[in-house]
Task: structure prediction
Amino acid sequence: MAGTDPIHQFVIQDIAKLFTLGGDGTEGSGVTFAFTNSALFMVATVAIVSLYMILSTGAKSVVPGRAQLVAELLYGFVANMVRSAAGTAGMKFFPLVFSLFTFIFVANMLGMVPYFFTVTSHIIVTFALSMLVFLTVVIYGFVKNGPKFLKLFIPSGVPGYILPIVAPIEFISFMSRPISLSVRLFGNILAGHITLKVFTGFIVTMSSLGFLGILGSALPLIMAIALTGLEFLVGAVQAYVFAVLTCMYLNDAIHPSH
Amino acid sequence: MAKPQDDQGQSHGTREVTRDLASRIASAKREREIEDNRASRDASAEMTGLGRGLRIGTEFIAAILVGAVFGYLIDLGLGTSPWGLLIMLLMGFAAGILNVTRVVAQMNAASPAPPGSDPGSEEQDEDDNDDA
Result:
């Protein structure tokens, strides 16, 4: 049943071993760094985004062609998102938000191609992305506002005697951001891909049951087609949600009092 | 005599033009705002019920997890087991509720109730007033 194993699609495979850190030289000791299928698709995602943006805007025509129009619409979409959530001061983070949005979006879309690996279905990848956002917020917040950044944990209008309770709660709420950000993206993509695989697996198992099974397998087929459409939507929406939340968290770093 | 009158007339006309321009700018701004609101509402409607549920769920669980991990680390560092874990778990629970109320408030702000809808509380309030 290897063909219908719903988890098999998430297995990391080494494509080329690079080098080993530590260990005593024997097989399996130390930490081996390898170029994996996950890394391959990350590189592919970055290459697709970069090549598309460079090639489509290379002509720099005043009246844009189709490819350039899509690139410009993408720019306008993310720029509007940043301006509405973080204000004009947030535009200095536009490259970060744009990179995150396009990376997650293209990675999700690549993951919808059969036999392709979905980068965002591994929590360490999404966690790394969300820690990037979180550390940017913390470091920039402290550099720009200094100790005033800590006002983030003190809501305005709260009397002093309940601050010892409110401030830790706000702190935990703040610290939970990278976790909820990464788990949301990872969970949506993982659950979607497993559901899709399970339903397509039903088609295979049912059609092996004879004539009635082949007739009945139309039902999971319809479901799988509907789920495929839904997965494209989820992939796009999750990229959008990740980018919007990034903007809102950056807004906290730029204007820390709320 | 004719010149000041002319000046006055001109300034009057200019003022009118300015006022006209101001009102046009205001109405354009209002339209833009309505458009923006509609855009954000569309975006939130695009988010499926599953997406909304997962959003709220992760916000809640993440805060509890972070609280529990903090409590565990405090216990490890200070040797106060199990009090750090217990207290920080409850703190994480509170932070989770805070996260959820923030997300829901933000979702409500993004999609206000449609104009024709009846919140149903006003009439009840009136009834209460009549009784009292």
